[in-house]
Specification:
This protein has 9 helices and no strands. The chain has 278 residues and is mainly alpha-helical. It folds into 2 domains: 1-69; 76-276, no CATH class. It is rod-shaped, with a radius of gyration of 47 Å.
């Protein structure tokens, strides 16, 4: 009976211990579930803010990119306005008129280029057969100063070779002057463009010192702003002069090439007349 009483007492203690532990386990489980729920709620609350930041970031990026990136035309227009229309306009006019004359000269010189060897071969064939009129017709149908010089010589072939040579030399000088037409004006615009730029800079510097005198303080803002505007006219003037000078040198090179063709062709032309018109 003592043994049975001990076993019954032990079973009663274990049952009571289990009943006491059950509420504690439920409380721990409830605490863990509450913590998990709070974490989920916090994540859900933070998610819209993150999404909002991600949504604002791409929107802000294009805006910043749009503010920083400007086209070349817009930048040029902005600098032109900053430099002042009173001094930038003369520089712009020098560029426009200079380029107009340059384009005209380039077109004229390209049209004046002649295949001198082919022309001389045709003249030689006609002169050899005694067909002076055919040689003159060939020169009339060929464009360029070289053909014009040959035509003047053939037109005086019956007056003697001395008169032919004088005509070729004289008309060669006329054609050379036509090739150099308008070059003086192009050179003038090349000189005027930086001159207007420097003049605008000097006037801008004077205005900057007037602003300093009015403000009574040599602040970097007053000095830098005035000098920036003043120097823009010099920059545009120099750029205009450089552009015009490059094309001007190209035109001079083209004229020298045509003059060499005229001189060499005239010598060969006289040799043909001497050979077949004795």
């Amino acid at each position: 009976m003592s043994l049975a009483s001990l076993l019954a007492f032990a079973n009663f203690n274990s049952v009571m211990a289990q009943k006491a532990a059950a509420p504690a386990e439920k409380q721990v489980a409830a605490t863990e579930e509450t913590a998990a729920a709070d974490a989920i709620v916090a994540d859900q609350a933070a998610a819209p803010e993150v999404k909002a930041e991600e949504a604002e970031a791409p929107a802000a990026a294009p805006a910043a990119e749009g503010e920083t990136s400007k086209s070349f035309h817009q930048m040029l227009k902005e600098k032109y306005i900053q430099g002042g229309a009173g001094w930038m306009t003369p520089v712009l006019l020098c560029l426009i008129f200079g380029m107009a004359l340059i384009i005209e000269r380039i077109l004229y010189l390209n049209a004046a280029t002649t295949n001198v060897k082919k022309l001389l071969d045709g003249i030689e064939d006609n002169v050899k057969s005694g067909n002076i009129e055919g040689a003159k017709e060939l020169c009339r149908n060929t464009r360029g100063p070289v053909a014009s010089i040959f035509y003047q010589g053939l037109d005086r072939v019956n007056q003697g070779l001395d008169n032919v040579e004088k005509a070729v030399t004289s008309y060669g000088g006329v054609q050379m002057a036509r090739l150099e037409n308008n070059l003086t004006w192009i050179g003038l615009f090349i000189a005027l463009a930086p001159s207007f730029g420097f003049l605008g800079t000097v006037v801008g510097m004077v205005q900057a010192f007037d602003d300093i005198e009015t403000a009574g303080d040599i602040s970097p803002t007053v000095v830098a702003g005035g000098m920036k505007v003043a120097l823009l006219t010099t920059i545009f003037g120099l750029i205009t002069a450089i552009i015009l000078q490059i094309f001007y040198n190209y035109i001079l090179t083209k004229i020298e090439s045509l003059v060499d063709q005229m001189e060499d062709g005239s010598i060969s032309f006289m040799d043909i007349l001497v050979k077949y018109k004795k």
